[in-house]
Amino acid sequence: MHLISRLRIVLTRIALKHLQFPVPLCLVGPDSALALCDTIAQAGIRRLLLITDGFLLQSGLLQPLQAQLLQHGVELEIFSDVEPDPGYELVLRGVEVMEHSQAEAVLAVGGGSSMDCAKAIVHTHANRCHPAKLTGLWLYALPRRHGLPLYAVPTTAGTGSEVTIAAVLSDKEAQTKKAIIDPKITPKMVALDARLTLNLPAFLTACTGMDALTHAIEASISTMATPETDQMARTACKLLLQHLPVAVTQGQQLQTRQQMLLASSLAGMAFTRAGVGYVHAFAHQLGALYQIPHGLANALLLPDVLELMLPACSRKLAALAENSGIGDAKMSAEQRSQCLIIHVRQLRCSLQIPSQIQQLCREDLPQIIRRAFAEAHGTYGVPRYLTYAEALQMLESLLPDRQQHQSEDRFSASSANSA
Ligand SMILES: [Fe+2]
């Protein structure tokens, strides 16, 4: 069982050894976004397409960047239609704007949606095809064209998209998510500027931070991890566990926000090489079906999935716990892993993130499981393969109380009938 999936993972591991993962040049620190604007101008770029979302544009947060670019004589075209979970139609609209703008480069400013959308727009524009044709795991091997230089400034510490080779898009018609995976879409240069994340609301900080934590943990336990990705994932995990609670309760702490951005990018570099796992596979389905924000979906799933993975990755989880100062040396690997999982569960609770999915419907569970398995198996280096029954039991525990009670009632009724 799962022989083909295992074989595909082995082949992927071999292929990845020969794949170059570009690492963008990162400018780090408060006001580094302004320094990035200087660098763009110094590169001789005179027409720039700024890709962002409407809220961010109207908030005035980008005004210093716009002023800096204009001062250098860089003309700006703005595409600010980005919305959460960007789909193909949005990408095509962005491509149209890009064509008319005659831009020489692109600057993406925003959360994961803005960066993924910008990556997809640049790649679609360069390859003159529908974005759906660019999605898929092995397509980077095809002779795709390089797009315009892409610069990125994340305004959330979560997706790590500024350093990854992936752009996740929603296939709205099929109610699923697809990814463009290609080293050519990695941004050329990035600014990790904590000043731009200071006003991120507490709940958004919590959910995006849990996304970054999921990247770090899933990359760490992946069978495709390498010593380099392990190092990055462990550092990211430690930083996130330390700084996320402070970032949520004291959002104006500049140094904390800076550490969060660093951790998020490190986690991004780890998972772009080692991949993610079941948490993401299920979270993508919840996002596509119910529009549950990605970070929230990950936070809902993370502890339960880790419980199921533990028997096959206790040493990895224990190493994460040890590096983060959780548990003690007298504990077995299993005990220390359990401590980490309990810590993650408590963290989620302290961040006021719910532990049930209100939108989740019992009738959708088979479809969610089928699609999550299709995404994960043979693509992600999961430590062990879940059975359908295990996945069903896990999702049932996330059903809102009313449906759990309904199911108990149904169970009691059927037991009574059969008795
Ligand atoms: Fe993610």
- Which blocks of ≥5 consecutive residues have pLDDT under 50? 409-419
- Using only C-alpha atoms, the radius of gyration works out to 21 Å
What is the CATH C level class of the largest domain, in words? Mainly Alpha
Oligomer: single chain
CATH architecture assignment name of the largest domain? Up-down Bundle
Helix and strand string, N-terminal first? HEHEHHEHEHEEEEHHHHHHHHH
Pfam families: ADH_Fe_C, Fe-ADH
Family: Belongs to the iron-containing alcohol dehydrogenase family.
Keywords: NAD, Oxidoreductase
Domain Alcohol dehydrogenase iron-type/glycerol dehydrogenase GldA: 27-193
Short description:
Helix content is 56%, strand content 11%.
Describe the protein in words.
Helix 2 (32-42) runs parallel beside helix 4 (63-71) and helix 5 (88-101) packs across helix 6 (112-127). With 419 residues, the protein is an alpha/beta fold. A six-stranded parallel β-sheet has the order 1-8-5-4-2-3, sandwiched between helices. Strands 6-7 form a two-stranded antiparallel sheet. It has two domains: 22-193, Rossmann fold (3-Layer(aba) Sandwich), CATH 3.40.50.1970; 208-400, Dehydroquinate synthase-like, alpha domain (Up-down Bundle), CATH 1.20.1090.10. It has helices at 3-17, 32-42, 54-59, 63-71, 88-101, 112-127, 202-221, 227-249, 254-274, 278-290, 294-323, 333-350, 365-376, 388-396, 401-418, and strands at 25-28, 47-53, 75-82, 105-110, 150-154, 166-171, 176-181, 189-192. It has 15 helices and eight strands. A hairpin with a 4-residue loop joins strand 6 and strand 7. The site of fe (ii) ion has 6 residues, from helix 7 and helix 11. It comes from Rheinheimera marina. Its cofactor is Fe cation. Keywords: NAD, Oxidoreductase.
